[in-house]
Design brief:
By secondary structure, the chain is of the alpha/beta class. It contains 7 helices and 6 strands.
Length: about 200
C-alpha cells in the first residue's frame, strides 16, 4: 500500500495580504517557515521516501525545510504549480469582489464553470495535474510520496484520486501546511486524513 502525503505550503506574504497568488512567485513569511518546521517534524516517523514540490518559492521553501528535517530527496516540478488565475493574480479578495462580482460569485458556487481571461480553468488544471500524479504513482509504485504544493492543485489531486467530479472542488478547503493523506490500496484509493493542522496548535 502506497501513501500519498499532500501538504500545502506555509503562509506566504500574499496569504497574509489576502492576495490571489496563482503562479506568481511569492515568498514564505517567518510564520510560514515556522509552520514548515512543524509539518517536517510531524513527518519524521511517517516513512516518506521522496518529496515532490512545485517550483514556486512558497512551496519549494516549505518542501526544502521538510526535506532537511526528514532527510529525504526533493524533486522539483513545474507540473504541480498552482492554477494560473490570469488577471486575478495580484489582486486582493476585496478587489475581486468589487471588480468581478459575478465571476467571483460563480467561483464560489460553480468553480468548474468559471473561465477567467488568460487563466486556466479547473478542467485544464485537472488534466495537467492528474496526468502528472498518475505517472508518478506508476513510477513510484512501492514508495510513499509527499507532495508539497498549492491549494487548488492539491484539492484537484484529492478529488481526482477519489474519482470525485471536479465540480465538488468547492466542498474542500485546505489551510497552510495542512496534511491530507490518500492511501492507494489494492482496489481503491482511500482518503484517511484531510486538512489536518494539529501540528500547528502551539503556533495558533
Amino acid at each position: 500500500m502506497k501513501k500519498i502525503f499532500l501538504i500545502r505550503h506555509g503562509q506566504s506574504e500574499w496569504n497574509k495580504l489576502y492576495k490571489i497568488q496563482g503562479q506568481q512567485d511569492t515568498m514564505l513569511t517567518d510564520l510560514g517557515r515556522k509552520q514548515a518546521v512543524r509539518i517536517g517534524s510531524r513527518l519524521i516517523n511517517e516513512n516518506v521516501d521522496i518529496i515532490f514540490t512545485s517550483d514556486l518559492a512558497r512551496a519549494f521553501d516549505t518542501a526544502n525545510i521538510i526535506s532537511g528535517i526528514i532527510n529525504k530527496p526533493l524533486v522539483v516540478s513545474q507540473d504541480i504549480r498552482e492554477i494560473n488565475f490570469g488577471k486575478w493574480e495580484g489582486l486582493t479578495l476585496q478587489n475581486i469582489k468589487e471588480m468581478y462580482r459575478d465571476e467571483y460569485s460563480l467561483w464560489l458556487k460553480e468553480p468548474d464553470r468559471l473561465e477567467i481571461e488568460g487563466a486556466e480553468t479547473l478542467k485544464k488544471l485537472e488534466a495537467r495535474i492528474m496526468n502528472w500524479i498518475n505517472n508518478i504513482i506508476m513510477e513510484s509504485r512501492e514508495n510513499n510520496i509527499a507532495i508539497v504544493s498549492h491549494s487548488a492543485t492539491l484539492k484537484t489531486i484529492i478529488l481526482g484520486l477519489l474519482g470525485i467530479d471536479i465540480s465538488h472542488y468547492k466542498n474542500i478547503t485546505l489551510h497552510n501546511v495542512s496534511l491530507s493523506i490518500v492511501e492507494c490500496r489494492e482496489y481503491n484509493n482511500v482518503l484517511t486524513m484531510l486538512n489536518d493542522t494539529s501540528h500547528l496548535k502551539e503556533l495558533l
